[in-house]
Design a protein that fits this description.
Serine Threonine Protein Phosphatase 5, Tetratricopeptide repeat; alpha/beta; 2 domains; Rossmann fold; binds S-adenosylmethionine
Length: 324
């Protein structure tokens, strides 16, 4: 699915929107909003136009007008491609959901795919795959693991994490909700198998066959970790590892939605939720993940393990059953 067209279908409205965009580029957000409102008088059902109008109002600091625009957007965008629910929640004008806004994330990355690497790695200093790979390598050495049999890269994107995992994994699968991201990575031939799937749904349908899972910069779109881990842990082999990153905050809240429309997770709450989900935390680091509008984004890198089956205990139990 690609993001809805930014053409309104009306030549005059498009022209006004074009002038508005030029004004916004010069920081003239109030004037841009004014012109965009005029464009929307001609095409009141143009969802993308309401999205842009909300953004101009927001940047101008007129939150009430931005909320009004996003409410129009919400009414027009049943699928949630434009993320109106998230925008309203961030501005205190709607329930703060804690789950993945699947259509929004899909459309976001469909639109972003062709410039993902130049933007994130080139301009924003994104190094999560490299850092997670380093942490994983250290843990492999500590545990005496030479190679994983079956790896699953959740939210594989353009394959930056997969490229790092490739030498460590026999059979490597990637899944992602965005068809355009999958198409970018398919060209590189990194993965043995690629599927366009939502990760919680995909994990819920699997048996415990992966001995490594990775999710670099992915759970920041999923919000509450409980449903993610409830699906992930059963799909991991006993003794299997999972390595992932999160954006971090220091507060008490388990998770909250940031103005960036990404979720930040609490450090203590994350440790607790991992343990409750039945994982052992092997490595836990707080790091700078990347920059966002010039500011560092603090985050967590985690390597955790599903406890191996205790064979001797299992045998003891079996013997006991027979004796009884
Ligand atoms: C910031 S990119 C990171 C891509 C890659 N892991 C990397 O490190 O370069 C996040 C990716 O996660 C995917 N994604 C986010 N939420 C998802 C979900 N619930 N199910 C599947 N993919 C998801 C997005 O489509 C996007 O490709």
């Amino acid at each position: 699915m690609t993001r809805a067209s930014y053409s309104s279908g009306d030549v005059i409205a498009d022209r006004r929107a074009g002038y508005a965009k030029a004004l916004a580029a010069d920081g003239e957000f109030a004037a841009a909003a004014d012109l965009m409102s005029q464009a929307l008088e001609l095409v009141p059902h143009w969802a993308a136009g309401w999205d842009v109008l909300g953004d101009y109002h927001d940047r101008h600091g007129d939150v009430a007008a931005a909320i009004s625009a996003w409410r129009h957007l919400e009414a027009l965008d049943d699928a949630g491609v434009f993320g109106a629910r998230l925008k309203l929640a961030v501005h205190g004008a709607g329930p703060a959901g804690t789950g993945t806004a699947v259509s929004y994330v899909e459309a976001l990355f469909d639109q972003y795919a062709s410039k993902f690497e130049s933007s994130l790695v080139g301009k924003l200093g994104y190094r999560v795959p490299e850092m997670l790979d380093g942490l994983l390598a250290a843990e492999m050495t500590a545990l005496g693991i030479e190679r994983f049999e079956r790896g699953l890269d959740l939210g594989c994107g353009t394959g930056l994490m997969g490229a790092r995992m490739r030498t460590k994994v026999g059979y490597l699968e990637g899944i992602d909700i965005s068809a355009a991201m999958i198409a970018e990575t398919a060209r590189k031939g990194i993965y043995d198998r690629l599927d366009k799937l939502e990760l919680v749904a995909a994990l819920s349908a699997r048996r415990a066959d992966a001995d490594l899972m990775t999710a670099a910069d992915v759970f920041i779109y999923c919000g509450d970790l409980k449903p993610v881990l409830a699906a992930l842990v059963p799909a991991l082999r006993p003794g299997g590892l999972v390595a992932f990153s999160l954006e971090a905050h220091d507060g008490e809240e388990a998770v909250f939605l940031r103005p960036s429309l990404r979720y930040a997770h609490g450090i203590k709450a994350t440790r607790d939720v991992l343990v409750v989900a039945g994982l052992e935390i092997l490595r836990f680091q707080t790091v700078v993940l990347r920059l966002d509008r010039g500011a560092p984004i603090n985050g967590m890198l985690v390597v955790a393990r599903k406890p191996p089956v205790d064979v001797s205990a299992a045998n003891d139990g079996a013997d006991g059953d027979v004796a009884a």
